[in-house]
Write a structure and sequence with these properties.
Elements lengths: L1 H29 L12 H9 L3 H12 L3 H12 L3 H13 L28 E7 L2 E7 L4 H12 L3 H10 L5 H14 L2
Helix pairs in contact: 2-5, 3-4, 4-5, 6-7, 7-8
Length: 191
């Protein structure tokens, strides 16, 4: 009987080890896999990957994909994106599976030019007068103020007569011909 105890203990130990291994396996299969990421070849991943490329890089990458040079395409994407090798491989696979057109990044709005805005109407009328000899011209408008008139005078003094006349017509109710006549007097008068 004693001769059967040792093999029986070995058999129990093996059974316990197999049960523990099976339990660990099922836990590993049920464990969450981390943050949800798009599948390696999803269209969303392709859009994200294409957004990281300049126009020249986009063209070169798709040329390599079209030529069947997957390793060179992965290397190029790896170098330009700064991502890891696995992420670059997944991005190139997604770009190959879901071709993306090049989209230039949206331009950031620049500082608006004050002369391009719709003129503001002020509650008062501003009078600007220019004269030379016997000739005097007056412009009266509720769309002018010292700041706008100063910009118009600066344009006139710098020799940009057309821009000054255009700005004056935008901020008053006079014609371009009248504005040019006024600017010509303004340029000479030193007002």
């Amino acid at each position: 009987m004693e001769s059967l105890v040792i093999p029986l203990l070995i058999l129990v130990a093996v059974a316990v080890a197999l049960a523990l291994a099976a339990r660990a396996w099922t836990r590993r299969q049920q464990a969450p896999r981390g943050p949800a990421q798009p599948p390696p070849e999803s269209a969303e991943l392709a859009r994200e990957a294409a957004a990281k490329l300049s126009e020249d890089e986009h063209r070169r990458l798709y040329a390599l994909i079209a030529q069947g040079q997957a390793m060179a395409a992965i290397k190029l994407y790896y170098e330009v994106s700064g991502l890891g090798l696995r992420a670059s491989r997944d991005a190139v696979a997604a770009l190959a599976a879901h071709p993306q057109p090049f989209r230039s990044p949206p331009e950031e709005p620049s500082e608006p030019d004050p002369d391009d805005e719709t003129p503001q109407r002020f509650p008062y009328r501003y009078r600007a007068i220019a004269s030379k000899g016997d000739v005097t011209r007056e412009v009266s408008s509720n769309m002018l103020n010292d700041e706008i008139y100063g910009r118009i005078r600066t344009l006139a003094k710098s020799g940009n007569i057309e821009a000054a006349a255009t700005a004056l017509t935008r901020h008053s109710d006079i014609t371009m011909k009248q504005a040019r006549e006024f600017i010509a007097l303004l340029d000479d008068s030193g007002a």
